Amino acid sequence: MNDQQDDDSNNSGLGDTNKEDTEKIHQNFGMERKNQEDNPFYWQPGHRLNDNPEYEIEKSLKAGGFGITYLAKDEKGKICVIKILKEYSSEKFISKKQQRDLRQEGIRLANCRHPHIVKVNDILFEGGKPCLVMEYIPGDNLCQIVNKQGILSEKEAIYYIRQIGKALIHIHQLDPPVYHRDVKPANIIIRSDTSQAVLIDFGIARECYPGEPIDLTAFSSFGYTPIEQHRRDSQQGPYTEVHALAGTLYFLLTGTQPEDSIARADCVLKGEKDPLKSPKGLNPKVSNAVDIAILKGMAISCTSRPQSVQEWLDLLPKPESKKTAKSSPSQHNPPQRSRPAPVPPPIPNPPVIQPEKLPSSPVTDWGLYVRTALMGAGVWLIAIALFYSPSIANKGALIAVGIILWGISLFWKNHSSLGQKILQHIFSLLSSCLIYLFLNFLK
Fold first, then answer.
1. What is the strand order of the sheet 67-73 is part of?
2. Residues 132, 149: one domain?
3. Domain membership of residue 83 as a residue range
4. What is the CATH number of the domain that holds 61?
5. Tens digit of pLDDT for each residue in 297-323?
6. What whole-number distance in Å separates Cα of residue 159 and Cα of residue 190?
7. Where are the beta strands (DSSP E) in 305-356?
């Protein structure tokens, strides 16, 4: 049986190594750790940039195929975003010409001022690696929004797509034009408390003269990148961004990542059906016009697509008028909770007033005519009975009939008040007296 060695090698946890080897390993590990701390892809919160000490790292935001993005703050405490371009990470040395070209590119990107494009404030070099300093946009990206709340309505999705479309048209019209090359839901942020869509992540944006081939083989995003962007030295143009924008709308309306363009092209070359499912097949609420627009925008061949973003946007339903758009609330922002309006005190019921029964119009009240006739007949009968009393045997009967007619005329369908009825009696008696006197005068 071998004796156990009496040394400290096993205490290091590094196996059967002697003390000298252990010290070298610890030294190398310390150097590697220091290299990682200075490496832009291993920055930790609180790290202050060596070549640009005015910036301090807050936290890592995301890492992808094109680089890593950090949330940082400058010496004034203003929050910003720093993106390290991964395409240059493997290069130990970037030439002065490359640095000049990259700085010019940063200046051009900084000049791409548009409300729906993230502001690129500067391009700096840290450890020889190029870094973009950009505006920080608070909010969720469209991929996060769909994952949280589900697919968007056609109206809301097109509202965001049109905003990004206008941003792409703006950079395409620059001289020379600039192309983003990585349009996708994750690179479109809806600014907090607004309905403003902002296109971010210009890490692989490039200027390009029309028809000039671009070597960007490695830069692609599943489902959104068109076939020409996968091929080395292929010609690209606005139609390249059309594919990505149409693919983004596809995802917003279906919640499904579109099929990869390489897989689609392989199927078509084999004589098989294009595996890309129509948006309407996944979501029946998608209108025919939008379904056709998306499929045209995502055509495999670039010549089969609309050749500009504006041409593709024209295939979508027209936006509402400004007046209607202002009156409608944002669909993305949750409605604000409002306090209930105070309940007003109850209004007391007004006293019920019975309408006064007014005498009917003389034009339509036939009872008035009848009463007048009866009153006249009664007065005349009484007057004749009194005036011609010697020659009339039934004088009492005439007086009785006259009084009855007179009474009927005063009370039948007579809606007058008691005072008015008394006045009518008085005027009737006066009329009888006047007739009696008139007949006596004639006698």
1. 56-64, 67-73, 79-85, 129-135, 120-126
2. no
3. 23-136
4. 3.30.200.20
5. 999 999 999 999 999 999 999 887 655
6. 12
7. none
